[in-house]
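@channel anyone free to eyeball this complex?
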Amino acid sequence: MAEMTVSGSEAYEGNQAQMRSLTMVWGALFLVLLPILGLLGLFMRAYQSQALQDLMIDSGWFYASLTLHGLGLVGLSYAVSFVAMLYALSQHIRINTGVLWFSTILSVIGVVLLVVNFLLRFSPGWYFLYPLPFNSAGGWASYTADIFLVALAVLGVAWLIWELELLRAIASRYSLSNALGWHYLKGAIAPELPPVVLVALVCGIAGTVAMLAGVAMLIFLFVHRFSGSMVDPLVVKNLTFFFGHTLVNLAMYHAIGVLYAVFPSYSGHAWKASVPLIVAWNFVLFLVLFAYFHHLYMDFAQPRWVQILGQIASYGVSIPAAVVTILGTLAQVYRRPVRWTLASSLLFLGTLGWAVGGVAAVLDSTVAVNFRFHNTLWVPAHFHTYMLVGLVFLLLGFVAHLTHELSGIAERVWLVRATVALLLAGGYGFVLMFYLGGAHSVPRRYAIYPPEVEVGATLAMAALPFVVLIVLGLLLYLIEVSRRWFAAYASLRAS
Amino acid sequence: MEPIAIFYLWLSVGALVILIYVAFALSTRGASGDEAAYQAIGRLRRPLFILMLVMLGIMLAFTVPRMPYPRNQTPDEVVHVVARQFQFALSSTPVRSQEDFLKASANRPQIPVGRLVEFRVTSLDVNHGVGIYNPDNRLMGQVQAMPGYVNRLFLRFDKPGSYNIFCMEYCGLSHHIMRAGFDVVESPTSAGHPPNRTLCLRR
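replying in thread with the prediction:
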């Protein structure tokens, strides 16, 4: 059984112990930063609903919150899911945790710089479309763009380093063809390939390419900063979305790698590599690099064939997700005596969020549909579905699993049930208001809605009670998991 | 494709997925770990793959011809749309100077009903989005406004009334006030869709 336990493979026991400490730290960062960044989301919906009208808060804070909320949660999800995947991977390969600690410290420095910029109300949005960071029309000081560039450079270096370490670690045990599972396609099943290794390699290759695109984007931004001359905005836009979109996709794929490794310990059925799984992930490696084009559908200057390729790739990535991972998750539970805990429930439900959000994403990745949906509330609707009730559920499930395994503290069943119920009701109610906004053509990223689309304010108000449910659910989650975290931390220190 | 129809489509498929998940979760009650059950679900993989391939293939074939990109159409009208933080300027003639911009931004053009209009869209500073809302406040279509590029959007307006343009790409702290508009008006010559009557915007 491909069960991931604290003991794991003896050969990598020492390495696993080091990974445990690192993963615990990232788990704690996640538990602290997720609610803070989430509360910025609550503030934004409250602002849009005009519930805060009497406080006379400048709309600049709305856009600064928008920027930090997006950047912070995308970066946090990517980093936490990456470390979680490496934790699962450490059962099979030796990872240099020194490199990961170095990247962790750089990541923290990058985050501190972003927070400083938030306080200075730097607000170019989470994907900071060039040349907006340098051209704020008096909205923010020009030196904040410099801080931002440094923050991006620090984070880029940090994450490129650990992507390269991931590739090095896999290469130290597997050949490229074996790690991609090509020997399975020839009928061989040795050496056995744990699915998390395959997923990690796909993510590592795509992640490295994405980071290099990020480096290229940064070079363009620095050229603008130091020469003062315009660089091609369409090229920078392509690089920005290649980097950003791939990062978001990878965050989900990291979490799926974790799911493959962790969920069998609750279902009792191994999640093994098979020909469909290998074919699926090899296709993902190819398709994920082209799906980002759907962010540029409304840039009519892009070549037409690129837009069609974007639609094909976006449709294409949904097939392996549904046929291998979603169906695989359902097979894991079907008529099996699944041990339903906080961890397994959230992992299972996380894949549901991915599927439901994925349907909306596929619809929006159709050029003719995107024409009416691009940059309306449909966009936050679908990405909050697979990020909030998808990826965040998966990561909360993983942290619950990790702390439970390491602490051994028994769960309080009523608390777990209440947590899951609150997160589910709050999460789906919250995203439904975004979907309705998209259906009513409400533009996204508006601090204040014009009278013609004031339904946006009504829907923002309707979303607030659901956000409160999410906050309550998170609070219960923290009550349950934080005591496990402290106990696990104490036991790690003792050992 | 009306947004509300897409919403109901998502709602139906999403509800179906949720029901499937509920059914599978319920199947774990009192279950003993039947290996045959696992294999049975595995056998659904191929039909699901074929079903998705066929469905997505049909969607692709149906929607690619409906992409909104220019296809050698000849417009009846041409509207130059120039964006800058946080204003739009709409003009029947190219906007070449600051003076042109200020004049055009104070302008609310009139477009005869039924004409095929080409919007030539660009930006003087950062990325913006030109979202055209019909008199029912529904988004008819959009295109990005990007510095250094001209994006060409073709739309036909069959319904007279007041149309709004809202900025659809976040462009700075006053993004939410960036808007413009035009009126689509009845015209004795509008029914026949005369060929290339460029620059016949009314002021």
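from a first look: The helical segments of chain B are 3-26, 35-42, 45-63, 98-105.
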